[in-house]
Amino acid sequence: MTESTHRDAIVIGAGFAGMYMLIKLRQMGLNALGLESGPSVGGTWYWNRYPGARCDVESLFYCYSFDEELQQNWDWRERYPQRDEILAYANHVADKYQLRDVILFNHDVSHAAFSEDENCWKVKAGGKSFTARYLISAVGCLSAPNTPKIPGLEDFRGPIYHTADWPEDGVDFTGLRVGQIGTGSSGIQAAPIIAEQAEQLVVFQRTPNFSIPAHNKLLSEEEKQQVRFQYEELREAARHTPDGILYDPTDKSAFDLTPAEQKIELDRRWDKGGFAFIAAFTDMLTDEQANEIAAEYVRDHIRQRVKDPEVAEQLCPTDHPIGTKRICLDTDYYETFNRDNVQLVDLKKDKIETINATGVQVSSGQWDLDALVLATGFDAMTGALNKIDIQGIDGTTLRDAWKDGPETYLGLTVHGFPNFFIITGPGSPSVLTNMIVAIEQHVEWISDFIRFSDERGINRFDVKRNAQHEWTEHVQKVASETLYPSAASWYLGSNIPGRPRIFMPYAGGLGVYRRYCADVARSGYDGFKLRYAQDEKQGVQVHAV
Ligand code: NA7
Known about the structure:
By secondary structure, the chain is of the alpha/beta class. It has helices at residues 16-27, 44-47, 68-73, 83-96, 185-197, 221-229, 231-239, 259-272, 288-305, 309-315, 333-336, 383-386, 398-401, 435-456, 465-480, 510-522, 533-537, and strands at residues 6-12, 32-35, 103-104, 109-115, 120-125, 128-137, 160-162, 177-181, 200-205, 211-213, 328-330, 342-346, 352-356, 359-362, 365-368, 371-374, 389-391, 420-422, 458-463, 528-532. It has 2 domains: 6-143 and 380-537, FAD/NAD(P)-binding domain, CATH 3.50.50.60; 153-220 and 241-374, no CATH class. Helix 1 (16-27) packs parallel to helix 14 (435-456). Residues 142, 148, 150, 163, 181-187, 206-207, 326, 347, 375-378, 490, 495 line the site of ligand NA7.
């Protein structure tokens, strides 16, 4: 790494988004620097080391498509990749592209301010200062852990582990009484494994989630070869689907089918496992009655899987339509509650009053515990960005600009923050998709924009306020035509007290969204105010209005 502190671009974060962005910038001949708070690559997969951590997108597609040699030669083991395997893959990519040469690890970005006079971003990280023409956020959507303010949490004498910041050497729960708070994807993956090891596992559930069997398994050589043989076509098709995932689409509404046919369709998808279940009917996420058919089907399965009928009912979600919170995929989650050493505490009926030195006090009494697991999720989509003091024109911070909810143009740029890009930001499909497909599209769009600017001598861009406003309204309108906003989900920031309730991801589908982005590029970046280096010399103002 060179000593110079000025770069063409600074990329914050070295997860899958940051790594691909750095690869692209280098291929374009630009001098880019990655700043990463952790000691290695992998982003959220570096920190999420909890037992059972696994991606809910299938291995053969939860990987980059831009490098044919890489996708042909990386050998995924299981249908769904374990965290360790994903991290090994991220490290392999970092080695292959010598990314460690352009990343400063253990450099947490604390501050970034745009200097109008110098037309560059001034960035502080790890006690050092850097400048760059472009600032690119690759901080991730699910990377700022949410630790709820439960009264007395700090009084607990035993260890407290957050699933999103798990000790590197793992945790041995043998012989311990463990309390787990949270039953989202992380909690649903962790509980069966913790239960096998611990003397006792007490699961504190505020809201039950819908979970579908993952039917995880080792991949056969034949399955891998079949995909590798058709990778190009499969990848291209996935890019234009609503969520970047290829799964057995249907053209049938629930009401085109008889009850018997509905069951056949749901059975078929249930037996297959995974997200395909949610695509059983075209109106699954737009019609309450259609949704309820699938929701009740899952509840019936929960009732079959859990022996104690009262516990089964407590595990049945009834407060949100299925799929309006990201569906969980499990391996024996519900069966875990048939074990003698596992208890479920329904916090809706039995509230946490306080955590004390020896355990958790709920309305009905005290649970004495040796260790606590917080599977309480993330300050999603805006949390990691809002931790950084990002100052745009006139010193306005991104936090202030977003105090009533995030506003972006295409989820990629923010008015008043020139030469700043966000990969998979709020207002883009991001968390409603296979993130890697969304990341590749964003990185390629950003690269094209930078190339376009460089070829024409454009040295500053800012998105116009009205373009941003129209896009943000469109994002809200599209969401309001679905059932998504009816769930108190982290898509709306509902899990963080005081957060404005704005539906953050773009629900119009990745394929549709790609077309919007491509049209903007084709129009010569309509919606942006562009400043040419030549105009700057003549003192032309560039504030976008
Ligand atoms: P999630 O899905 O946000 O789940 C967090 C869980 O923690 C959820 O059950 C919450 O209940 C619960 N929670 C949060 N705060 C509290 C308090 N104060 N008391 C009790 N329970 C609480 O996070 P995950 O890490 O599981 O998964 C995040 C995403 O990662 C997932 O969607 C996949 O895309 C991968 P709530 O539902 O809010 O009532």
